[in-house]
Amino acid sequence: MRKSWGSVSAVALAAIAAALAIGQAPKASGPDDKAIRQAATDYAAAMTKGDLDAVANFWAADAEYVDDSGTVHRGRDAIIALFKKSLADLKGTKFTSRVASVRFLNGGTAIQEGEFDMTAANGVSDRNRYTAVWVKDGDKWRIGSARDLPDEPTAAATAKALKDLEWLVGDWVSENRDLPVTLTARWALDKHFLVCEFNAPHKDGTTMTVVQWFGFDPTADRLRTWTFDARGGYSDAQWGREGNEWTAEMAGILPDARTGTAKVRLKFVDDQSCVWTLSDREVDGQPIADSVTKYVRKTAVAKN
Length: 304
Fold this sequence. Notes:
Blueprint: H1 30-49, H2 52-56, E1 59-66, E2 72-74, H3 76-87, E3 94-106, E4 109-119, E5 125-137, E6 140-148, H4 155-163, E7 170-174, E8 182-188, E9 193-201, E10 207-217, E11 222-229, E12 234-242, E13 245-253, E14 259-270, E15 273-283, E16 286-288, E17 291-297, H5 298-303
Parallel strand pairs: 1-6
Antiparallel strand pairs: 1-2, 3-4, 4-5, 5-6, 7-8, 7-17, 8-9, 9-10, 10-11, 11-12, 12-13, 13-14, 14-15, 15-16, 15-17
C-alpha cells in the first residue's frame, strides 16, 4: 500500500476536496497566491527537519484530515499526534511540495492542489497527490482541512469508467407521447467524454435544450458530469455506480442566479430502455416535484 500523508506525517498539504465551487472561483490575488505557495514549500521544509512545532503551526486548531483509507482525524492536536508516531521512522526523509494550482473561493479561503514527494535516506521515493483548503488567519494562511487523493488512474481505468456507459450511445425518445423528450448520446474528443443532448418541447412551440458531458475525474477517481442548458443554467455532479444504476447529487446555478439541487439516478433497464429519475429537487431551498422519465431507443420505436 502506498504511504498516506498521515502515515508519513506529510498530511499538511493534503486537502478536502470540499468546496465544489459552482462557476468560476474568484481570481487569485498575487500576494495571497504567492503566500500559499511559499507556505507549502515551508511546510515541506519543516517536515524534512522533523520540527513538529513548526508543522503544527501550519494547521488551524479545528483542522480536519482524511487519510487514504477514509479515516478522519479532527483537530490539530490529533493530527500532530498522528505525525509524532511516524516521524521516528522517517528520519532522513526529504519532503518536497509541488503546487499544481491555487483557486480562491473568497478573500479568506483557497483550494490548493498538487503533489508531495518523499525521498527516504536510502533513496526510495514515494509521491502523494493532494488537494488542500487553506484559510486565512490574520496575516497567516493555515490548513483548514486535508484529504489524501487516490493514485493517478491508468488510461485503462479511465476508459473503463466511460466504457460502462457505452450502452447509452445512440438516439432515444421518452415515453411521453404528447411532448416527447429526445435524447442523443455520442462520443467526443477521442472517447474521453460522452455527450448527452436532451431536447424537451414545450406547449408554446419552443424547445429547451440541455447538454450534459460525462467525463472521468482523476482527482476523485469517479465519473463526473458538467451540465448546461440553453437558458444559461449549469450544474456539476460526481457519480457513483451500483449494479445497473448510476447516481449523483447535482448542484447548480439557474439563469436568474438562484441555486438548485437534485438527486439524479440513471438506470439501465435493457439495451432498448433506460430511466432517468430526479428526486429531492429544490430551488433556493423550496421543494420541486420529483421527475421520472423512461426512454426507449428510437430504433425500437421504429420497429413497433
